[in-house]
Design brief:
The radius of gyration is 19 Å and the shape is elongated. The chain is about 60% helix and about 0% strand. With about 80 residues, it is mainly alpha-helical. The chain has one domain.
C-alpha cells in the first residue's frame, strides 16, 4: 500500500490536540458565576480564576495551535 500524504506530521497533530484541550479548559475555567435568581449581582464573576487564569490558559492554547499548524514536520523536510 502507498503511504498517505498528510499535510501535517505526527508532532503537528499532537500539538494541535494539546492546544484544543487547553482551549477547552480555558473556556471551562471562565464559565460559571451566574446569579441565583437572575437579577442579583454575584461578585464571583470577578474572581482571579475567571479574570486572569482562564484567559492566560486560553491564549496559550491558541498560541500552541498556531505553533502546531506552522511547525515543519521532519518527514516533510526529508521528502
Amino acid at each position: 500500500m502507498a503511504k498517505r500524504d498528510f499535510a501535517f506530521g505526527k508532532e503537528n497533530f499532537i500539538l494541535i490536540a494539546i492546544a484544543i484541550v487547553l482551549i477547552v479548559i480555558g473556556f471551562v475555567l471562565m464559565s460559571g458565576g451566574s446569579s441565583v435568581d437572575g437579577v442579583s449581582f454575584n461578585p464571583e464573576i470577578f474572581s482571579t480564576r475567571r479574570i486572569v487564569v482562564a484567559p492566560v490558559v486560553t491564549i496559550i492554547g491558541f498560541l500552541l495551535m498556531i505553533a502546531g499548524i506552522l511547525k515543519n514536520s521532519k518527514t516533510k523536510e526529508q521528502a
